[in-house]
Specification:
Aminopeptidase; about 25% strand
């Protein structure tokens, strides 16, 4: 018989007393206290005080659950940048713990904790919840009837090891916590596409093996002050689209709000405001694929981000997160069949979808209404320096309907090709595709192929780096049909696969989180061969004399472009770019499209 890890006060909080006959209650009390004493020798933690688990304590906790339960296992799924393993805890009534072999007729739920280790609420709430689920006597044990629960105890192990008590200046507890950046000072919640960190590459590999039906990423919010302890980010349902988007918006999200209300823990949509305060309205968070929920949407996974409020005491935040996770697992357990059918339909529809928007813009004309409870706010003279400061009055609570802007419209749609081809030289990109379990095959011989080539014609780049990159935006392209030399070992990537939408988002340059946007192809933006103006002058004159149409276009450009008309070098360069001596591959991206109706024989 395995001992129980549930502290006595968890039973009393749930039932009001220790259940069963008096003799059983005494025996259970002694048995439980012994188990807790054994655990606390490793991790002196109660889940109800102002202390959060360290990384070492969290792993010891899940290792003990693994040891005690045949329905649980803690496995290593990769590395982190700090050199420590990334671990995954799986709870499965079927006792199958190979991520690739899980029963997909059950709802697979993945909970990711401590992506920002200064926001540890979910790490503690998850440990609490898993200890309850592992106990056959606890009502939560039944949550595994139709659910497979997967938990990353601590995702940003690097930041969790940098433990301190000061870097979250505005947060009410816990006494100590980790740091937002990882060992490379990366924010891992901006790394799901570019995968600069070993953490993210490990996550991609395990996520695309699990293909969870639901992802929860646990956080603590910054921003406005308000009465709610829990706020929630939900994947943009317009972006998710199809059966998944309809189920998320029409069924699951409303059910979770109702369930939390019944638990006396009402929650609000994440307080991302149209103006400075909530009265101005709430705006759904624009979760592009760099973020967890945006990345999950590429695979039709329903994504949620819990955002407890930083000014609420840590134990209160942990309790709210614990309640939400319990509500979510209860929904997934009761409606597992519906969720699995929805996912299969969404996957089937996506594999037939012939075009995807690459950008989503907020529709600020349309809004629904949400009944919000807020604190009165006012501007008053600053206490430090000069000017005005915003102050919230917690003694004055208002309640009213505020606009909730939820609709994002797709733009810059791109038609999905039959195949992509990427030369083998682009190892960093290919490595990321492999981490996402993209199906690819290599050309078996050198060959000339007629393909669609993409050229970047303009883009904007900031002066300062963001997460280690100078991210391109407002990208404009042109496409040309070209005959291109490919070589044995270059990679052919069919789009008829699970990663279809992922491929479009990362390989089409206009996407906000494309590999082009994240600078992986910047070397093609530099022209390599040039001309000497004093030598090329005669060749330019010969070209104009030999081609009357070119000469006419040159004269028209001189008349319309003042900068060109005032620069002899620019005039020569205009002609050079239209001459046989121009290299012709500058700005050509190493991602080639084979359109439908074409064939590639590898």
């Amino acid at each position: 018989m395995r001992s129980c890890l549930i502290p006595v006060h968890f039973y009393t909080a749930m039932f009001g007393k220790i259940p069963g006959p008096a003799s059983h209650r005494v025996l259970l009390l002694v048995f439980t206290c012994c188990a807790v004493a054994s655990f606390r020798a490793q991790s002196p933690h109660s889940f109800t005080d102002n202390k959060s688990l360290t990384w070492e304590e969290a792993i010891a906790f899940y290792s003990e659950l693994d040891r005690q339960s045949e329905e649980a296992a803690l496995i290593e799924v990769g590395l982190t940048d700090v050199g420590k393993p990334l671990q995954l805890f799986i709870m499965n009534r079927d006792r199958v713990f190979d991520p690739a072999q899980l029963n997909r007729d059950k709802a697979i739920v993945l909970i990711n904790n401590s992506i920002h280790p200064g926001e540890p609420d979910g790490a503690d709430a998850c440990a609490w919840l898993c200890s309850e689920i592992a106990d056959p006597r606890h009502p939560f044990h039944a949550l595994l009837d139709s659910v497979i629960l997967c938990v990353i105890p601590v995702y940003n192990v690097d930041g969790a090891l940098r433990r301190n008590s000061t870097t979250r200046a505005n947060q009410d507890g816990p006494e100590a916590y980790g740091f937002r950046g990882n060992a490379r000072n990366l924010d891992l919640n901006r790394d799901f596409i570019k995968c600069d960190s070993e953490n993210a590459r490990s996550f991609s590999r395990i996520f695309t093996q699990l293909r969870p039906h639901v992802l929860v990423d646990t956080h603590v919010s910054n921003g406005a002050d308000y009465p709610y302890t829990m706020t929630l980010i939900t994947t943009q349902y317009h972006k998710l689209g199809g059966a998944a988007g309809e189920y998320l918006r029409g069924v699951m999200e409303p059910a979770l709000f109702r369930a939390m209300e019944k638990k006396n823990e009402p929650m609000s949509p994440y307080v991302h405001t149209m103006g400075r305060t909530p009265e101005s309205g709430l705006v759904d968070f624009p979760d592009t694929p760099r973020f967890s929920t945006g990345y999950a949407a590429l695979y039709n996974t329903l994504g949620f981000v819990t955002e407890t409020h930083m000014l609420k005491p840590f134990p209160q935040r942990v309790k709210a997160t614990h309640l939400f996770l319990g509500c979510l697992l209860d929904h997934c357990n009761r409606f597992s069949g519906d969720i699995c059918r929805m996912r299969r339909q969404a996957d089937e529809d996506q594999r037939r979808q012939m075009a995807f928007p690459l950008r989503y813009d907020l529709d600020s004309v349309y809004s629904s209404m949400f009944r919000f409870r807020g604190y009165a706010s006012q501007q008053e003279p600053a206490r430090v320096g000069s000017g005005q400061r915003l102050r919230y009055d917690r003694d004055s609570i208002w309640e009213a309907y505020v606009p909730h802007y939820r609709r994002y419209r797709g733009a810059d749609s791109v038609h999905v090709p039959l195949l992509y081809i990427i030369p083998q030289a682009w190892r960093e990109v290919l490595e990321r595709l492999r981490a996402n379990h993209v199906h690819m095959r290599q050309l078996e011989r050198d060959t000339l192929l007629t393909v669609t080539a993409t050229f970047a014609t303009s883009w904007e780049t900031p002066e300062r780096p963001y997460e280690g990159h100078f991210v391109h935006s407002n990208v404009r392209i042109i496409r040309e049909t070209r005959t291109v030399a490919f070589y044995r070992g270059d990679w052919v990537i069919p789009t008829d696969q699970t990663a279809r939408r992922y491929l479009v988002e990362v390989l089409e340059a206009q996407g906000p989180d494309s590999f082009f946007a994240w600078n992986f192809f910047d070397s093609v933006l530099q022209q390599k061969e040039w001309f000497s103006d004093y030598v090329f002058e005669e060749k330019a004159a010969e070209l104009l004399e030999a081609d009357p149409r070119l000469k006419q276009e040159f004269e028209e450009a001189m008349a319309s472009d003042q900068a060109m008309a005032g620069s002899h070098w620019q005039q020569l360069y205009w002609i050079y770019k239209r001459s046989p001596w121009y290299e012709g591959t500058a700005h050509m991206l190493p991602v080639f499209r084979v359109e439908h109706g074409k064939r590639v024989n590898p």
